[in-house]
Amino acid sequence: MEYISTRGSAPALDFEGVTLAGLASDGGLYLPREWPRFSEAEIASMAGLPYAQLAARVMAPFVGDSLTQEELLALCEQAYGRFAHDAVTPLVQLNERQWLLELFHGPTLAFKDVALQLLGLLFEKFLSRRQGNLTIVGATSGDTGSAAIDAVAGREGVDIFMLHPNGRVSDVQRRQMTTVRAPNVHNIAIEGSFDDAQAMVKRMFADESMTNRFNIGAVNSINWARLMAQVVYYFYAALQFGAPGRKVAFSVPTGNFGDVFAGHVAAQMGLPIEQLIVATNVNDILHRALTSGDYSTGTVTPTATPSMDIQVSSNFERLLFDVGGRDGSAMAEQMRSFDANRSMQLTNAQRQGAAGLFASYRADQDQTSRAMQWAYQHAGEIIDPHTAVGLSAALASELDPAIPMVTLATAHPAKFCDAVERATGVRPMLPARVGDLFAREEAYTELPGNYDAVRDFVAERATPAG
Ligand SMILES: Cc1ncc(COP(=O)(O)O)c(C=O)c1O
Ligand SMILES: N[C@@H](CCOP(=O)(O)O)C(=O)O
C-alpha cells in the first residue's frame, strides 16, 4: 500500500513510513493512493469475528507488507486485550431506532484508546527495526493526551511532549495526563486554545532546526495509523446490523474530523453506510462548511464539551482532497490561502462530493443537556456531553427510520462528571481501573502560547534522532 500527501509534493511512503512520519513534509496529510475495497462476500465473511480478528482483517490492506498477517493479529490481540469489555466496542440499544456504540472501555475512558493502544505497539515494532529515537509532539483538548501517554509511557526510544490548553480540559482529563510518572512523558499547559496547540505542533514538523536533530512523530489523527484503527469499529457495528445486506447510519460527535473521516473510509471500502452526521458543538465551522461551503474560523468558545472546542479541523483537508478530485497542488494552494486568511470557500466539487454521504448538525448547550436527559429518562443511560451532541443530532435526523442510527459514544460520562450531574442530577463514578486519580500528584509545565518557548522546551529535553 502506498500513501500520498494531500498537498502533492511529499514523497510517497509505505505504511511503516507514514506511521513514523506523522505529518507529510509538505505540510499535508497522508492517505492511501487508492481505497482498498472489500466485496460483499468478503464483508459477509467477517460477521461474528472477535474484535481483534476483525481489526486485523479490516486493516490488512492498509498495512501491506509492513507487517505479516500474524504480526498484525498479535498486535491487535495485545492492544484490545487491555479493554474492560469483551466486545471492546459494545453496541447499546436506546429505543427501536437509536443505538450507542460505546468506544470508552479502554484504559483512559475515551475512543482515542482504540487507536492509540495499537499505535503505541506499532511505534515499538517499527522502532525496533531501526536505530534511533522518536520525539512525539502532540496537541490535545483532553482525550488524545491521556490515551497517547498511556500508550507510550515508559517505552524505550520514545519521548512524548503533550500540549494541552491551560484550564480548558476537565479535571479528570488533566489528571489522567499529569499524574503519569515516567521519564519520557512531558506535559505542557499552554496559554490559548487547542487550535493554538495544534498549530504549534504542525509548525514543529516544518521547523528544520527541530527535524534535523529529532525524529518528530505524531499521535494526533494527522497520523494515518490513528484513522485506520478507527475504521474498524464502523465495520464492527454495521456487521451486527446485517452488513453488507443492511444499511446503517452514524452520528459522530466531531472536532478534528478524524473519527467521522474514518467512517468515510469505511464507506469507501464497501461498508453500506447511508449517512454520516457530523455533529458539532457551538464551535460549528464544520457545520457551516458542510451547509454553506464557508469554512471560516472564529474565536473558540469554551463549552461543556471541551474535547470538541476546535475550529481548525485537521482531517477536513483529507476529505476535501478525496472528494474534490485528489489534486495535490490545488489542495496546497487552498490550504495556503486558508492559513493566510483563516477562511476559505469549498469548491463545488468538494461540496457535492461531501453531500453524498455527510449531513451536519450543531448542538448548543441546552440541546446537549436535553440529549443527556433524554438518554437517562428514556433508556436509563448516563452519557457524556460529547456523546450527547451526537445523540442530539441522531434524534433530530429525518433519515428513513428503518435504518438503524448509531451514535458514537466517545467518552465515559465520569470524565465530565460535573456537566453530566448538572444535566441529569446523577454524578457518574470513575471506574476502578483508573485507580486513585485524585490522590496522585500532578506534574506539568506552564508555557506561554508562543512557539519558540515550546520549541526550546522540547529541544532541551528530547533525545536526538541518533
Ligand atoms: C470525547 C470526544 N468526542 C469527540 C471528539 C471529536 O473527535 P474528532 O476530533 O475525531 O472529530 C473528541 C476529540 O477528538 C473527543 O475527545
Ligand atoms: N479532541 C481531541 C483533539 C485532538 O484530536 P486528534 O483526534 O487529532 O488527536 C483530544 O481530545 O485531544
UniProtKB/TrEMBL annotation:
Documented EC number(s): 4.2.3.1
Threonine synthase N-terminal domain boundaries: 2-80
Pfam families assigned to the protein according to its UniProt record, in alphabetical order: PALP (PF00291), THR4_C (PF24857), Thr_synth_N (PF14821)
Known cofactor(s): pyridoxal 5'-phosphate
PROSITE patterns: DEHYDRATASE_SER_THR
Record has Protein biosynthesis as a keyword: no
Keyword vocabulary terms for this entry: Amino-acid biosynthesis, Lyase, Pyridoxal phosphate, Threonine biosynthesis
A GO MF term: threonine synthase activity
Transmembrane segments: none
Superkingdom of source: Bacteria
Pathways involved: Amino-acid biosynthesis; L-threonine biosynthesis; L-threonine from L-aspartate: step 5/5
Listed SUPFAM superfamilies: Tryptophan synthase beta subunit-like PLP-dependent enzymes (SSF53686)
Swiss-Prot/TrEMBL catalytic activity: O-phospho-L-homoserine + H2O = L-threonine + phosphate
Domain Tryptophan synthase beta chain-like PALP: 87-322
Protein family per UniProt: Belongs to the threonine synthase family.
NCBIfam families listed in its UniProt record: thrC
Protein name: Threonine synthase
Taxonomic source organism: Altererythrobacter arenosus
Taxonomic placement: Bacteria, Pseudomonadati, Pseudomonadota, Alphaproteobacteria, Sphingomonadales
Gene: thrC
